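User: tokens in, sequence out, please.
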């Protein structure tokens, strides 16, 4: 794993990943999915339920697109559903911070962009109702799975 140091401007500097080490996009996707669990006001990444409620057996990274780029860089895009009445810019900032930290700290890839599209906003009651209609059981995620790479 690459080491990370902070320079005086607060930016992270990385040692290059050894050429014989390759990181599969599934690993990056799992880290990103785990990183957004528990963010207040985030109900789901389109295709997977999370934050406050998580449907049994769903992959929290479902709905994320990962692009592994040249020079140990990664770009991420996702569609999310937020909770009505919550601050969307604050949610987006926390998504960006959590994902960036998880990926950079665990696999040493530089996150170049995280594009968040808010596909919908709804109350928790509406979200629960939709989960019921899909035949899923919405449950609290206090015991969110931890990444085995942390």
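Assistant: Sequence out:
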């Amino acid at each position: 794993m690459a080491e990370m140091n902070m320079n005086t401007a607060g930016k992270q500097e990385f040692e290059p990943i050894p050429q014989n080490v390759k990181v599969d996009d599934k690993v990056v996707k799992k880290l990103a999915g785990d990183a957004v669990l528990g963010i207040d006001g985030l109900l789901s990444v389109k295709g997977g339920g999370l934050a406050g409620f998580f449907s049994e057996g769903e992959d929290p990274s479902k709905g994320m697109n990962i692009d592994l780029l040249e020079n140990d860089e990664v770009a991420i895009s996702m569609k999310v559903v937020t909770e009505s009445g919550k601050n969307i810019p604050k949610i987006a900032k926390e998504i960006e911070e959590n994902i960036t930290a998880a990926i950079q700290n665990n696999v040493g890839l530089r996150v170049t962009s995280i594009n968040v599209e808010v596909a919908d906003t709804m109350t928790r009651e509406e979200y629960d109702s939709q989960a019921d209609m899909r035949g899923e059981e919405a449950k609290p995620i206090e015991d969110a799975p931890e990444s085995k790479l942390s």
